[in-house]
Design goal:
The protein is mainly alpha-helical. It contains three helices and no strands. The protein starts with 10 loop residues before the first helix and ends in a 22-residue tail after the last helix.
């Protein structure tokens, strides 16, 4: 996904997508310029919350893959989860 050059994303969205990429793929891109861009759009508490959510979600996905569990294999009869309505979509 080439969000950096895409016109579909706002500067705010591009900043947070770059932040997400730094957390997931390459921490070296979290340079002073990125932090400056992030602080133009987000408060420190918001950045902490965003970073925590990305890390938690990534960790959950890695753990699920480690267990070999597919989507909706556990508790499939429930409607709980991060994407309610998935079964009907």
């Amino acid at each position: 996904m080439n969000f950096v050059d895409s016109e579909k994303f706002s500067p705010r969205e591009k900043a947070v997508l770059t932040y997400t990429s730094a957390i997931i793929w390459n921490s070296e891109i979290a340079d002073d310029a990125l932090w400056e861009r992030l602080h133009e759009h987000f408060t420190v508490p918001e950045l902490v919350e965003l970073g925590f959510f990305v890390a938690l979600t990534l960790g959950q996905q890695r753990w699920i893959k480690t267990l070999g569990i597919g989507h909706q294999q556990v508790l499939a009869e429930t409607s709980t989860g991060i994407a309610p309505g998935f079964k009907t979509a």
